[in-house]
């Protein structure tokens, strides 16, 4: 009998410490699949990697088909689509367990949303699923599994989806980075993926920090150039607080977009909190003198660390910040605040007396005192995660989702004000699938009123109000993107009829 502890370990060490090249391709981010109307083919697969010499572990990775190369396991695949153009991606599962692909932040048809049992059947080992949609919004997005999420995300499954603007916004360089930690110890071996006491608090943190698979990478960017630095927080737990270190002469940094959506007015970067799941696009004006550096640090932890350094190198048009056109707004429906109905969502710990979570796992967290517990810590079909051949969709869905009653039902095309209250002493990045949220008010200072996004970073005890236009029909997940919180109850469904 395998103990839960064993199941929660990241993986079994590969016995031979194969020499893995430490040299990464100059452009971080693995293979690029260009999607001019069509087509990416990619798979989820186990790949060996050595974070430390002499120790090789198995990561789970998305790779463009045919692109797996030694040493690339932690580098994220980058898919590119174009705003308003059909995008089709054929996904194949080469993992030893079922999975799905969720396109985080995309406003797509619900059948493409990648939530097992709710929107599609799990993709079994060896099977494929074709995802096809036309992204209405340009910006920085990402993809990850929505099944056995804690294990699958922690082991590495995450990739970037860049939706390019219909018209090239004219940066001198575009650098996407996927930021995440790993539960890898100083010897390069997997640690337990979760510490169960931490699941009931802020969550379990990974001690090894990477930007697109490298620790504190140093990249080059055109001297005097205007660089779009896309930061995606794909970590399962950590809220990042990004600052620019002392800027050299001629350099400047602005926040230009959040969750793919441009700011109405760019803001000088001060300290930007980026919760798990969220993205932040920065506009970096590089110094003109070759060799001068701009670096960014994370300061959300008591001992800050360098996230990435950009070194000025090579020619550019040497434009100043105001000489760049602002990013065009995405076509998000305008809320009608006058007729809006308010809906309450209370984020807390624990469930109603007598109410049980939908599986045998304990519910640590809840929304409106109800818990949807994703079976977690299991690595294959088990009685807790029943998706055995022969089981009907309805049976499997009932076992995972309880009766599937939504937290709220929204009438199509109406505006709603979601009142989100955090009754806990911990922050929760609350993510809503399929719909755009627009910030209205908060008990906290510094909210960007009117800003559009897909995730609301709710501080301890914060109460925030966001507007949603219910213009995309379907059953959409709402959950905390600290994956331990999601997995242990802080998840539910919002239905748009
Ligand atoms: Cu990245 Cu259900 O979300
Ligand atoms: Cu949470």
UniProtKB/TrEMBL annotation:
Keywords tagged on the record: Metal-binding, Oxidoreductase
GO cellular component assignments: outer membrane-bounded periplasmic space
Entries under CDD domains matching the protein: CuRO_1_CumA_like
GO molecular function: copper ion binding; oxidoreductase activity
Region (Disordered) residue spans: 312-335
Ion transport is among the record's keywords: no
Keyword Oxidoreductase: yes
Entry-linked PROSITE patterns: MULTICOPPER_OXIDASE1 (PS00079), MULTICOPPER_OXIDASE2 (PS00080), TAT (PS51318)
Domain Plastocyanin-like: 71-167, 400-496
UniProt-recorded name of the protein: FtsP/CotA-like multicopper oxidase with cupredoxin domain
């Amino acid at each position: 009998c395998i103990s839960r502890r064993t199941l929660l370990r990241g993986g079994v060490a590969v016995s031979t410490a194969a020499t893995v090249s430490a040299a990464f391709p100059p452009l971080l981010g693995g293979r690029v699949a260009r999607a001019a109307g069509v087509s990416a083919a990619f798979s989820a697969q186990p790949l060996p990697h050595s974070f430390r010499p002499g120790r090789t572990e198995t990561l789970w990775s998305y790779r463009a088909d045919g692109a797996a190369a030694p040493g690339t396991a932690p580098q994220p695949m980058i898919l590119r689509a174009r705003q308003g153009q059909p995008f089709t991606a054929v996904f194949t599962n080469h993992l030893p367990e079922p999975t799905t692909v969720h396109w985080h932040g995309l406003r797509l048809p619900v059948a493409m949303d990648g939530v097992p049992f709710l929107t599609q059947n799990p993709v079994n080992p060896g099977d494929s699923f074709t995802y096809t949609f036309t992204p209405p919004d340009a910006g920085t997005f990402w993809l990850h599994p929505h099944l056995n999420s804690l294990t699958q995300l922690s082991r590495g499954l995450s990739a970037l989806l860049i939706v390019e603007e219909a018209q090239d916004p004219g940066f001198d360089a575009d650098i996407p980075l996927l930021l995440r930690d790993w539960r890898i110890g100083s010897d390069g071996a997997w640690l337990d993926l979760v510490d169960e006491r931490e699941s009931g608090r802020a969550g379990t943190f990974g001690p090894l920090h990477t930007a697109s698979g490298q620790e504190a990478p140093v990249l080059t960017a055109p001297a005097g150039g205007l660089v779009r630095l896309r930061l995606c927080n794909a970590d399962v737990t950590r809220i990042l607080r990004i600052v620019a270190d002392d800027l050299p002469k001629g350099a400047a940094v602005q926040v230009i977009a959040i969750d793919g959506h441009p700011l109405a007015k760019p803001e000088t970067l001060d300290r930007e909190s980026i919760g798990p799941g969220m993205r932040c696009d920065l506009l970096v004006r590089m110094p003109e003198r070759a060799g001068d550096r701009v670096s960014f640090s994370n300061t959300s932890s008591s001992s800050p660390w360098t996230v990435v350094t950009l070194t000025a190198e090579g020619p550019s048009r040497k434009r100043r910040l105001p000489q760049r056109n602002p990013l065009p707004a995405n076509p998000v429906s305008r809320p009608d605040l006058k007729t809006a109905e308010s809906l309450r969502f209370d984020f807390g710990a624990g469930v109603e007396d007598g109410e049980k979570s939908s599986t045998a796992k304990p519910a640590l967290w809840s929304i409106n005192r109800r818990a949807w517990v994703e079976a977690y810590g299991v690595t294959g079909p088990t009685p807790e995660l029943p998706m055995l051949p022969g089981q009907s969709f309805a049976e499997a869905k009932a076992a995972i989702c309880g009766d599937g009653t939504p937290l709220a039902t929204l009438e199509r095309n109406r505006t709603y004000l979601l009142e989100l209250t955090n009754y806990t002493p911990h922050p929760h990045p609350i993510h809503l699938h399929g719909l755009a949220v627009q910030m209205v008010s908060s008990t906290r200072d510094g909210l960007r009123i009117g800003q559009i996004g897909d995730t609301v970073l709710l501080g301890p005890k914060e109460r925030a109000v966001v507007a949603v236009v219910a213009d995309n029909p379907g059953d959409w997940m709402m959950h905390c993107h600290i994956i331990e919180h999601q997995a242990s109850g802080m998840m539910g469904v919002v239905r748009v009829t």
